[in-house]
User: What shape does this take?
Amino acid sequence: MVNRMSPGDRIFTLCNGLFLTLFAFLCAYPLWYIFILSVNEGRDAALGGIYWWPRSFTLDNFRVILGDATVINAFWITVSRTVIGTILSLLITSMVAYPLSRKELPGRNKLLFVFLFIMLFSGGLIPFYIQLVNLGLINNFWVYIFPSLFSVWNMFVMKTSFQNNIPESVIESMKIDGAGYTRIYFSVVLPFSKPLLAALGLFTAVGHWNDWFTGAFFVQDISLQPLPTYLQRVMSTVEASNMISSTQFNQAREASMYNPDAVTSKSVRMATTVVTILPILFIYPFLQKYFVKGVLIGSVKE
Amino acid sequence: MSANKKMRRVLRTAVLVLTAAALAACTNQGNSTERTQGDTETVPSYSLYVPALTTPVNLDGRITQEVLQRSGVQWETVEIGNGGDLAQQINLKLVGGNFPDAIVLPSDSVLWSRLIDENRLLPLDDYFENESEYPNLAKIDKRIIDNWRASDGSIYFVPSNYEPYVDEPSAWQGNAQGLWVNDTILEEIGISRDDLRTLEGFEQYLQAAKGQQDSQGRPIIPLSLGGENFAGLEVVMSMFGVRSSGNGWNEQEDGTVVADYQMPEFKEAFRWLNRMHLEGLLDPETSFHKKDLFVEKVNNLRFGAMLFAGWDNPNLSLMQSNDIPISTPIKTLEEQGFPDNWFSPTYLPVNEGAQLAQYANFNPFGSNGTGLRADISNPDALMKAIDWMQTEEAFILMEYGTEEMGAFTWEDGVVVVNDEVFRGPDFWGGGSGGMASVTQHGFWWWKHLASVGNTHIKTLEPPWPANNAMLYKAEEINREQGTFDLIPATSRIRPTIGGAVEKYSPVQNDIRLQYYARLLLAENEQMFDNAYNQFLNEMKVRGHDEETIAEFNEQYKAYSETPAGQITVDIKRSLPRNVYEDEPAVIGE
Amino acid sequence: MSYDYCKRLDARIILNLHIAHVISIRLAYSPIPEGRLLTILHRLSSIKKKGLVPLYMFLLPGLVLIILFNYIPILGLQMAFKDYSFRDGIWGSSWVGLQNFKEFTASSDFWRATGNTFLLTMLRLLFVFPTTIVLALLINEVRNFAFKRTVQSFSYLPHFISWIVVVGFLDAFLSIDSGAANSILRSLGVNPIAFMGSESWFRPVFILSSMWKELGWGTILYLAAISSINPVLYEAALVDGAGRFTQMRYITLPAIVPIISIVLILTIPGLLSVGIDQIYAMINPANIAVAEVIDTYVLRLGIGQAQYSMTTAIGLVMSVISMILLLVTNSISKRLGGDGLW
Assistant: This one.
């Protein structure tokens, strides 16, 4: 195959390779930087000049944020909301996208507008909060799931993909065989869209994984707190502890309590970032196998 | 059509789940209410909300259990904040209708007035006058109570962490602001500390410092104004006789109040800063650097002098990098010599003809306040518990636990702390976790709810580490040079709800920051004048400052006639801390 | 008492569901004049005959959800015309007409923020959007499987880093005192530049940093779309002797055009919202004049001053403008022969 490459193609391949290598490095380096700062003593890191390797190694930053049972619980809350939320969301959203992708659906445009409308208009935080109170979702695990179950954005992407990428002939032949819309959905539409579902699923999952707002504002029960909310709290505590020391706290032993720590709010922030990203990095290859396989189908066969 | 059936099943499940979720919520709600009702017969039970606290509270903690038992009330739930904006969190609470029985808020929170305005809080006046039932509340200095009085004349909060004897406060109030200089550079240049007390002498120092180099051969940045958002500006303004802290209200001789930026001295001060910037004497990143970056520069010893809050000085990291144990007292350091580039506080330079303005506040009135919901059931029992929490016994329990826990012992009426236990895993969490890891054991947070200050509790205190001694010294200097005083009335007034000050002060603050940057970075005198005139104009047009100043003057005048406005404190003596010795000493007597 | 509360709650849920039901019926079938009843019935029976009923059933869960979590809260938009106070609640607050609108349109802050928002989103559309497509095409051209996968994986990393951390990194990298960028400038004899604290550098830094953070992640969608291309097309093209550029131009690109147009269309209503995180982390007194956008402005009004009526009013205006923009783009997209949203 190589000998079929024209010189122009070869130069392009080379430049492209070089460019993408540089790009990949630019993307990866800051994360490495964050990682080494997270395992370096905070006060030492504040002196700057750390670029490639940690200078004085410590795991204290991680001890601070992973140091108790609440974290394990928060971790499981996050995992379950991510799994349940993503699967249900893909299901519900694709269920809406599917009929709206069928041109024969009477009233399709009006229905589309009904869904589009919510992308543009919202009542703001307060009415939303009141509605959650009315539905009994405050301090309830399902507040992580239900409000975000349907995604307009994903719905439109799915709808377009269903319309353009699923051969109409396949659907027609299914219909001739006597299949109803429900069967077409499960046996044609969903399997055909696996790569897209994987991609949108990843988007959704990351959204769930990183969402601290819901936990912070709609849930007070510590045992229902997801990881990002918990980490947000730890962060503000570290910052507060720095602050408490600097405001007038009238304690007898205050002066000696101002403990010079390996931990600064910056180093904890770095460790927090690492903790949030790592699981995604671990899960990612499994998901990637799914849709990269799909991604590559198009180009591998030459 | 099995698929159809499947579909229907999916739908049915979805509906079921929805209903189940709603039901679950209902049952939860039911349970908790019933439990509350069940417990009422035995121990009165309440819900508490501490939005400023972000560390989870463990109600099963040993000290907490002890506190609950001795105070005689049960806390059903203790909700904490999420680290986000306080106003928003509390507003949502108000909207949602699940307002707690008691709420703890920082004393300077504007939300107090809002809660009172919406009739959410219970007036507590009677409790502070009932000596037989609530002796410890009745004992609180009337000036403190007056300070907490709302504009309608009632008191809605129990203060916490206030000075037990207003006239005999602790000598340490945490005010380390001022001028800090690099001793080594000062010495090399050959300028004395006294020379620094004039603006000229100070500039000479800065010019000379500009020629110095740090260990990596980079030129020293002569002057820093501290961290974010012109943190040290209040110190600079003081040098020119302007008070810019506390929203910049300056009281005139005739009793009226003017805004700092309208004073000619304000312009003069900024012109000076601008000149410092143009001559390369001021950190070029002053107007925009973030705290992280500032701290990095501090610890890399990039600065020759700092006009700032004092706390983020490099002394601690100097001790660490010079292998000096971090608990070394200053006396030891004086004997063996300070490490190079040690920063120490010194007297402020004063502009000719000006008198230093106050920027360091003495606030004996307490850091937090606890309010009760207007329709709370059985407030008396709760107030009884809060009354108990004002005792020294309660303070010691909340701070050190019970004596059996081993963190302290009584020796001749003096609290002697066992550091190993006190800083161990059951208390401060030990190790490098610091305050972040202490909190899961949940003990010190009770002091947010109610506590008297510990100034007069006799305690054996180890000598302060040298770096902290410098902070203490800075406050002493503030007292001596007249920049430290009782928090002025202009800073104690809470803005009128729905008034011009409340409405426009956020806008004004934005205008300020933006124009501070422009004034500082102006390239010549004409640009500076333009920026200043634009600044005044923006304050007028967007900031509606004519309205705000008029409203504040009116409010200030009215406030001056209330008991709160007439509070004066004559400090008879202050109780020093064990700062300058190298042996443990008893403090608090 | 708790039982009462529960019953009330149930009632509310039922009421909400009822409202949802009514609204959904209203929206799905416009009000029925009596004379047309027969035609409606006829249409209904034809829907049933064609087996279209399940399709409506598919819509149902989504409809219920948006009614519960979007449409009912949207009723809160009335706050824009009221003087909202917590004591009186949304429904009980007094009407003030257009006063909120008058107030914010009279403020120069608002107009400055609007200008900045528009400019920044346009810049982003101009630079980030096409670059993402180009990057997706470039990645797609890589033949080495392992290399491709590595590049892809690495390019997603920045997406997971919060803006606060990213900007912290920028602060360090671009610092006058110790930043690498200014060290290089200095060694070239150029005066250091205050990248993070200057009005003229704010926009370039804003665009480049959003590119860095979202480029790789943005390619996922396009690469997924490319993956659905039938390989037969490439084989046929190869047989015809088409080179890589020809393939890219005539097969890959057309295949992702629908996705491109949908993403583009969906960007339009967002033209008035830059996304608060990045700006919030980058804004400072020295660049506020160019960095303040509607989102940060509203945040300040809403949170700092609890002016919920005013922020709702601004939100409402933004929504209406977004809707107009969307309708216009959709019709343009259709007229140009592309795919519209409907």
About this structure: Chain A touches chain B through 69 residues (CB under 8 Å). Residues 60-297 of chain A form a domain with the MetI-like fold fold (CATH 1.10.3720.10). The longest helix of chain A spans residues 265-300. Chain A has a mean pLDDT of 77.
